[in-house]
Amino acid sequence: MARFKFLLAFLAMLICVGGVAGAYFYWKKFAQPEIVVNRHIAGKGGTNFEKPDFGKRHFDASVALIKDGELVSARDRLLYLMEYFPESATYAEARRIVGELNMDLLVSRIPVPGKAEHTVKRGEALVTISNRNKTTIDYIMRANGKTSEFIFPDEVLTVYPLDFAVRISLGAGTVTILDGDRLFKEYRIVDRNLPADLRAPVSTSISEKVAWVGNQPVNFTDKNYMDSSKWMRTGRIGLFIRHIESGTSTDGGAAAESRPFGVMLEKADLEELFTILRVGSKVDLVK
After folding, report:
1. Per the count of CB atoms within 10 A, which of 47, 79, 149, 181 is most buried?
2. Cα separation of 232 and 276, whole Å?
């Protein structure tokens, strides 16, 4: 009888040991990895692990689309990334590429909503065509590969209604062009010199676009127009958009005091803005 009880006790002990071993095996194989993964994702437990970047696959897919020449699809994929994965490490680069794609699509022959063709009628000029189509002379010339103001009856020109808004962010140091509520392109402010009494927020619009060669204003018919110095004046005194002049001092000394008022961009960036902004375009100055 004693042996039988001993045998039962031994079997019970084996069952307990087996149960404990099974539980340990399950914990090591299934529960512990899940806890570790969750801890790594959350960055908790004193271990510094990066969160998964769910936006990167959209970025990689858009790069592949660009290589295949699918610019519209690539742009839209990047916009999706920017809207739903703003924490992605690819966000800043996606934002830059969206601007480049938008500009390429705008001035190319690739069809996009709003882009149309205008057949030149006898007696028309670039000024009248740009006004009727709510675009700019610079856009018509650039989109149609023109190097002079000459147009001819029955010539077909690509036109596009330019209705962009400008947001100048002093804190971010950027000039952002918006198409409705979507990003079109963003430019970096290289320097700025604003009147002391000009404080954000300010809402105004572009009131004048001027090109200068030496001390003389010129227009698109001048042979030196492409190399001219350009600036845009807004309805708020002292708020200009200019390109940085070579040799301009930004060290706050006497030379800096003689700088013209405005926010300054790279010359190539200002040329693009001159192409896509019209007199009357909305401008917001924000902190």
Report:
1. 79
2. 12
Indicate if 71 and 120 belong to the same structural domain.
Answer: no
Query: How many CB atoms are located within 10 Å of the residue 203 CB?
Result: 13
The domain total for the chain is 3
Asked if 153 and 229 sit in the same domain, the reply is no
φ/ψ bin of 69: left (φ > 0), alpha (ψ from -120 to 50), beta (otherwise) = left
Same domain, 224 and 184: yes
Residue 136: give the domain boundaries.
Answer: 116-159
Contact 264, 244 (CB under 8 A): yes
Q: Tell how strand 202-213 and strand 229-234 pair up.
A: antiparallel
Cβ–Cβ contacts within 10 Å for residue 62, how many?
26
Q: Strand 229-234 and strand 174-179: pairing?
A: unpaired
- Residue 169 has a CB neighbour count (10 Å cut-off) of 16
Region of 180 please: left (phi>0), alpha (psi -120 to 50) or beta.
left
247-267 per-residue burial string, b: 16 or more CB within 10 A, e: under 16:
ebeeeeeeeeeebeebbbbeb
Nearest to 282 by CA among 207, 231, 206, 187: 206
* DSSP label of 178: E
Say which residue the tokens 């990167």 belong to.
Answer: 56
Question: Please, are residues 281 and 184 in contact by the beta-carbon 8 Å criterion?
Answer: no
pTM of model > 0.90: no
CB 227 within 8 A of CB 250: no
Considering the domain architecture, whether residues 153 and 67 belong to the same structural domain is answered as no
Lowest mean pLDDT among 89-98, 176-185, 197-206, 244-253: 244-253
